[in-house]
Amino acid sequence: MIPVAAQPEPSHFSKQVRNPGQQFLSKVQKPTSQQWRGKEYWQRALPDMRIAYNSICAYSAFWIPHSTGNQPKPALSSNQKDKLWETIKHLKLNDDEDLVIERQTWYLNYLNKEISFEHLKKKAPFIALEAERQNLV
Asked: What angle is formed at CA 117 by the lines to CA 65 and CA 70, rounded to 5 degrees?
């Protein structure tokens, strides 16, 4: 696992995120998706988190653009796909299919020479480091 240094909470985190979130959860113990709607308090901290982590998401392991919509590129070879899924399974990163596809897309873009390894290291540093660790570069 690649260590990520935790950054300090934004000064307004408790007021804008923690307190409203805890208040909501104290009233609604097991919220449904519909009950969560409009309660995404954590998003209020995103601008500060983007600055603190240099736009790299410590959870998803890649650069987060302000808008999304990248589509997956052509499939990996069987060997590359096996290695990729083995890594995702080992690191337990496959709980969110959208993030799995996003990680694959970053690596596929590198393999298809759509981006350089330097660009991969800049925008998806954890993915680049894992590719290096597995001698896939």
From this structure: 30
For 28, other C-beta atoms within 10 Å of its C-beta total: 12
pTM: 0.48
Partners of 56 in the β-ladder: 63
- Is 17 a domain residue? yes
| Domain span including residue 22 | 13-52
Q: Is the pLDDT of residue 72 over 90?
A: no
Q: Is the pLDDT of residue 116 over 70?
A: yes
CA distance 94 to 79: 19
Q: Residue 127 and residue 62: Cα distance in Å, rounded?
A: 7
Per-residue three-class SS string for the chain: CCCCCCCCCCCCHHHHHHHHHHHHHHHCCCCCHHHHCCCCHHHHHHHHHHHHCCCECCCCCCECCCCCCCCCCCCCCHHHHHHHHHHHHHCCCCCCHHHHHHHHHHHHHHHCCCCCHHHHHHHCHHHHHHHHHCCCC
Residue 72 lies in a domain: no
Q: Which of 39, 37, 55, 35 is nearest to 47 (CA)?
A: 55
